[in-house]
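hey so i finally got around to running the thing on that chain from the lab meeting. sorry it took forever, my laptop kept dying and i had to restart like 3 times. anyway pasting the input first so we r on the same page abt which one it is
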Amino acid sequence: MDDAAAMRHALAASTQVLGTTSPNPPVGAVVLDPDGVLVGSGASAPAGGPHAEVGALREAGERARGGTVAVTLEPCRHTGRTGPCTQALLAAGVRRVVVACADPTGLAGGGTQELRAAGVEVTTGVLADEVGRGPLEAWLTAQRTGRPYVTWKYAATLDGRSAAADGSSRWITGEPARADVHRLRAQVDAVLVGVGTVLADDPQLTVRPDPGRQPLRVVLDRTGRTPPGARVRDGSAPSLVLDLEPRAALAELQARGVVSVLLEGGPVLAGAFLRAGLVDRVVGYVAPALLGAGPAALADAGVGTVQDAIRLRLDDVARLGDDVRLTLRRH
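ok and heres what got predicted. didnt touch it at all, straight out
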């Protein structure tokens, strides 16, 4: 098995733990024996548990000696709640380590230099772009920007309406699209809405079916209008009401260990986040329906002319039943 194929196996392993590892990154690793046969696979455990390399090495056992380890993120060299992955690799006697993305943190970075100094052959940058757009994207972005990674999710008709003129919005999209939203929620640390959405729709904002770990439900409410009996305050998942503007809210969430946020609020809140430059990814569910009136999916985002439009890069288009899901990122 070549390096690229091994890294894709490691990437697949990391996908399985997306949404379960914060504040640690979702990393995947595989071990190839000296003949290039895959003999071990691992992924990050929840914070405090073994890292991906350790899990893969345990599965491989003695077959790792003289072999190759492919890992999506540079192995750490520091001791935190677990020991350094570099030392685990050296103790296992691996000959080569293949890395996709460098660790941008000063504390954990530098693992490749330590391995090279110990005589291990290290190859870096293998499938770096592909891996960097995968499960590691939110964590890498959070390290580089100093705030949680934000995905704005919206559902709209073909003419861009998020609700009808009478305010009704259930259901603009079909069941496959709504099920996909639960998949998105399961992959993030927090789901965020404004108090207007709570008052209008009384959403519960949980993942269904319950995966055993629910994201933090966050309401931005600067006027104290969130009802005590709102469903977002029930006991089905943790919840938090913040009297803060968007940037300060993200800082507060980061201090609580939140790495990724799904913005599910209405058009005004979405406009505020976009206006502040705080949206990294957009996931839009477009239904083949026309309303002709009613609120737009996005309110004022600070754009005055076409030249100032917020330009996005289209990364993926998928059909979900009769609806279309668009995944876009900022340039």
